[in-house]
Amino acid sequence: MLCQECGKKQATLHFTKILNGEKTEFHICESCAREKGELIPGTPNGFSIHNLLSGLLDFEPSSHNPLAAKAPPSRCEQCGLTYTQFSKVGRFGCSSCYKYFGDKLDPLFKRVHGNTIHTGKVPKRSGGLIKHKREIENLKKELLLRIDKEEFEEAAHLRDIIRDLEKKVAEG
Fold first, then answer.
1. In 3-state terms, what secondary structure has residue 24?
2. For the packed helices 49-57 and 102-113, what is the interaxial angle rounded to 10 degrees?
3. CB under 8 Å to 159, separation ≥6 — which residues?
């Protein structure tokens, strides 16, 4: 694909901008992107995926947050890698790093993926049963929240919906 700006070079950068709900896609070469200012500022040579990830990895949980876990060890006991080194390189030194830096990874995963648990996608054609099971799971969580808030009428309504879905799942 050729660059949409100059029409001469191969488009190597592909951007999607969403402004006021309007989606616009750009396919441009690196030099045109640099001219337009579309590259990540402060990175050497304009664009680096490692520097992009490093910016995400520098996320620090707020120290005034009472739910924030205690600070993880500053260095992996197995390979000696520090979190600062990890944030610059973008990968761990060994499998033990996941354990030592786990508390810092959950907020990162939540920011990047929206959740800390992978749920995957469900096929549209053959995923009806899985969709119903996920819906039941979500409704049960909602039911517990309604009970905690003492919203018993809404909880009873959710209970009935859950029962109906469970019957559908049992029937296949």
1. strand
2. 120
3. 143
